[in-house]
Amino acid sequence: xxxxxxxxxxxxxxxxxxxxxxxxxxxxxxxxxxxxxxxxxxxxxxxxxxxxxxxxxxxxxxxxxxxxxxxxxxxxxxxxxxxxxxxxxxxxxxxxxxxxxxxxxxxxxxxxxxxxxxxxxxxxxxxxxxxxxxxxxxxxxxxxxxxxxxxxxxxxxxxxxxxxxxxxxxxxxxxxxxxxxx
Length: 182
Hints:
Blueprint lengths: L1 E4 L3 E8 L2 E14 L2 E27 L3 E20 L2 E23 L2 E12 L2 E13 L5 E15 L4 E19 L1
Parallel strand pairs: 1-10
Antiparallel strand pairs: 1-2, 2-4, 3-4, 4-5, 5-6, 6-7, 7-8, 8-9, 9-10
């Protein structure tokens, strides 16, 4: 959900739940969260839910182009778990990460816009990116748009407590509703 205030300031709230499950995997050997897993019948789950509050300032805003830059605070609710018979192990993490935020829209026609939008930051401890490239197409009510494209989520950390990196990419289809105050 985003709010455009005075044509220059965008405030946006995003909830992006992500959960992936694996069933009956086979591994040589893995030491995870203090437990040793090997062989067949290993089930796993990867959860990386994010909740974001963003502020972006509009640098360019005309009939064809929009360019917004700003910052995001991301709250992550992460969980990785493995299970094999009676053996179970999990690692959870709840934390906050500051990110840079950008939004680029090109509208060659009144009803269609190409979008490149994301939050990302790279640092010595790790990196985080959530980037969408696609189209927005207005449907029905004013402010309601169909969104379709490609989304890339990548990141992780390499610190004393954990080494975890994930690269997930997929087709994305959704709805966008824009509340604008001018």
